[in-house]
């Protein structure tokens, strides 16, 4: 059953509700019986300062001109809307379709997962149990609404037909990036690059030092990487991670890409064995602990036990207090465990939020003596920043891109 517009608006913030009203107007003008995700996309792209249009501009395929690709998107969206059957107009606003209402509910679930909303959600849940209201009090923000609408298969197909990727648009929304350049394999014969941009010599922080310098790129994540055959890739990897660890802010490396987990395993092994020239001088003697198996057990266990989580983090806190060196580097492993709950199991959501909350408190309690490090595929990284948009900053993550195959590192 479609949902009345007034009911759907109760789930939205003022900004998101305005976007819904515009979508309803699009559906009404076209004589459609329901307001769907396609109407919402049409309305969002037409807003004066459209976050969706801005994200598309940064995630577009550079092989085509912006005007041409946006024209293609306009045509694809128009064709899809033309296929929606018309109905007799009534005085009432076209109700919200099941697919769009599902996107709103997904947005509520995503906001509920965010650690800063963990306690608030439980309070709201208790209040709802005491009342007869079936409407959630979690107000969906516009950003989260857009992210959920992009998950709609019909919407993804429209963007795909126009040459866009929903995953890249979502990443551009949650984490604004500079203009992106992409290289096809037919025009660029070096190791595969993903979402990379060539730095300008006009940039004072650029690694590019002159017109004769080639093969130097910087990813839209932190750091840069020399792509020439004389580079020692292993040392470069350690150097990039070490530079992040030595920072005062944003000092917890999150390795992202095809070879991220392999790089993390190699780096962790070298730190654990205390090999020379792996870390900056000021971090020599840094202690190391891997809690990947513990995190996986905490999050995926059928019976989530907060006491076990509390005990593990108390043990780490005690270790930090006893350490004589710079501090403790905590490897939480693959970020996949934090985003594996595609079935939206509330129990798993609570477990993930609680573990993130404990990691945040560990950093707050021990200040500059605790570091975090982990890895993620591009897909899981996109899911993580989509579900927990503020957590990346709260945990002080600095994303480092590693999009090379393992064979390239070995070779």
UniProtKB/TrEMBL annotation:
Q: Which family does it belong to?
A: Belongs to the ClpA/ClpB family.
Q: Which UniProt keywords apply?
A: Repeat
- Pfam families linked to this entry: Clp_N, NBD_SMAX1
UniProt key word Repeat: yes
**Which PANTHER family does this entry report, sorted A to Z?**
CHAPERONE PROTEIN CLPD, CHLOROPLASTIC (PTHR43572), PROTEIN SMAX1-LIKE 8 (PTHR43572:SF49)
What superkingdom does the record give? Eukaryota
SUPFAM superfamilies hit by this protein? Double Clp-N motif
Q: Which PROSITE patterns does the entry mention?
A: CLP_R
| Name assigned to this protein | PROTEIN SMAX1-LIKE 8
Q: Which residues form the Clp R domain?
A: 8-179
């Amino acid at each position: 059953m479609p949902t009345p517009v007034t009911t759907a608006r109760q789930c939205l913030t003022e900004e998101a509700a305005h976007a819904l009203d515009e979508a309803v107007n699009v559906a009404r003008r076209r004589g459609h019986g329901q307001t769907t995700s396609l109407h919402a996309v049409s309305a969002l792209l037409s807003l004066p300062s459209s976050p969706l249009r801005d994200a598309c501009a940064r995630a577009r395929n550079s092989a085509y001109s912006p005007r041409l690709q946006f024209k293609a998107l306009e045509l694809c969206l128009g064709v899809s809307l033309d296929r929606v059957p018309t109905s007799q107009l009534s005085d009432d606003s076209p109700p919200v379709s099941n697919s769009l209402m599902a996107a709103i509910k997904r947005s509520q679930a995503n906001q509920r997962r965010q650690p800063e909303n963990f306690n608030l959600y439980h309070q709201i849940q208790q209040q709802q149990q005491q009342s007869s209201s079936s409407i959630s009090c979690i107000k969906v923000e516009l950003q989260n609404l857009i992210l959920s609408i992009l998950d709609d298969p019909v919407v993804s197909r429209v963007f795909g037909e126009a040459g866009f990727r929903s995953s890249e648009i979502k990443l551009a929304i949650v984490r604004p990036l500079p203009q992106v350049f992409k290289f096809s394999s037919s025009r660029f014969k070096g190791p595969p690059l993903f979402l990379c941009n060539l730095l300008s010599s006009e940039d004072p922080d650029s690694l590019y030092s002159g017109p004769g310098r080639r093969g130097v790129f910087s990813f839209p994540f932190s750091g840069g990487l020399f792509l020439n055959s004389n580079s020692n890739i292993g040392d470069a990897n350690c150097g990039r991670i070490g530079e992040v660890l030595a920072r005062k802010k944003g000092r917890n490396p999150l390795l992202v890409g095809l070879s991220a987990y392999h790089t993390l395993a190699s780096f962790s092994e070298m730190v654990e064995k205390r090999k020379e020239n792996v870390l900056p001088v000021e971090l020599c003697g840094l202690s190391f602990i891997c809690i990947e198996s513990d995190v996986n057990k905490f999050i995926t266990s059928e019976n989530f036990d907060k006491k076990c989580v509390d005990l593990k983090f108390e043990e780490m806190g005690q270790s930090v207090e006893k350490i004589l060196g710079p501090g403790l580097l905590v490897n939480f492993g693959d970020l996949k465990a934090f985003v594996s709950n595609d079935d939206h199991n509330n129990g798993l959501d609570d477990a993930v939020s609680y573990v993130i909350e404990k990691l945040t408190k560990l950093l707050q309690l021990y200040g500059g003596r605790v570091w975090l490090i982990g890895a993620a595929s591009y897909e899981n990284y996109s899911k993580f920043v989509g579900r927990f948009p503020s957590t990346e900053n709260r945990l002080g993550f600095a994303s480092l891109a590693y999009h090379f195959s393992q064979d390239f590192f070995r070779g």
